[in-house]
Amino acid sequence: MDSATSLPFTLSPNASPVTAQQRAQILANPGFGRVFTDNMVVIRYQEGRGWHDARVQPFAPLALNPACAVLHYAQEIFEGMKAYRTAESGITLFRPYANAARFAKSAARLAMPEVPEEVFVEAVRQLVRVDHAWVPGKPDESLYIRPFMIANETFLGVKPASEYLFMVIASPVGAYFGEEAVSVWVSDFCRAAPGGTGEAKCGGNYAASLLAQQEAKGHGCAQVLFLDAVERRWIEEMGGMNVFFVFDDGSLATPPLTGTILRGITRDSLLTLARAQGLTVREEPYAIDQLYADAASGRLKEVFACGTAAVVSPIGRFRGPKGDAVVGKGQGIGPVTAKLRSALIAIQRGTAPDPHNWVEKVI
Ligand code: PLP
Ligand code: COI
């Protein structure tokens, strides 16, 4: 790594932030990812010089050279994490070093320079501190934080760039899904193949998922489920979240981390919480045909999606070329899902003890 593990930040925040009244209006109904805070963090990288020029500055459009590498070869990675307002009006982050570590792994896979974990987390802290008034306080709300890195070298040859921008932006958000169990479309398209970039959080994976997601919407489904690219049989993950299954014996299963799915931090946290609740949990392959059979026989009791944006959201129905599979009654949230969801949210929002030291206080 050719840069220091910590950097000085120059603070030149927005001198004309939105008024408290405008902000209150925006926060009354934030939606998801449509509005942004007053500031952003920008850190530059140059080969030979490393990470430098770390700034908190006004949120504003970027001026990019039309020949800059990210616009042509998609050398881009990102993270998704949240800041929460606690009952005591403090502000916390959930497992930010796990995001920093995953970002470093994504960087390595895309031949990009790693942002030192401490620099990554400090950049997030700096933005949350300066924009703390934007962290909403209602139960389903939070400040969604999007750290990302782009290749910024002006050059049309195909090679890893020699210049990068690391940035952090933030958006106050409400719930990603409504209360009701969602329907999921089982896609014929593949998202990731062995040896590919499925495990990295890079924009290209999401670009590859959009047509499938569009198809899902066309079939009245909120999300798409991807199967493995080799046998087209094993359930992998959804477009933007991992997936768990709850069986009639009370056990839980989720697809294993084989390199083609994202190592979800929510997934990992729920595995820990489920084991602490005494549940039997398996990380094992689950075939789509078995899902259809188990839904029909009643062996499959609950299914849920999990991720930073989705938190824990029940799935009521699968639709696909092979027809419909209804899980349980096809609606509402099952008891195992509900208990895990409450346990996670209680830790994230500081209303329960944090035995795993997952919560980082910012303010
Ligand atoms: N899988 C994909 C493809 C995602 O985009 C996400 C969201 O970040 C997840 C899984 C869940 O990961 P996490 O729980 O770390 O947010
Ligand atoms: C996240 O949960 O952070 C994601 O990246 C998923 C996306 C659906 C917003």
TrEMBL record:
The protein, known as: Branched-chain-amino-acid aminotransferase
Obligatory cofactor(s): pyridoxal 5'-phosphate
Matches recorded under PROSITE patterns: AA_TRANSFER_CLASS_4
Family: Belongs to the class-IV pyridoxal-phosphate-dependent aminotransferase family.
EC number: 2.6.1.42
Enzyme class of the recorded protein, top EC level: transferase
Function: Acts on leucine, isoleucine and valine.
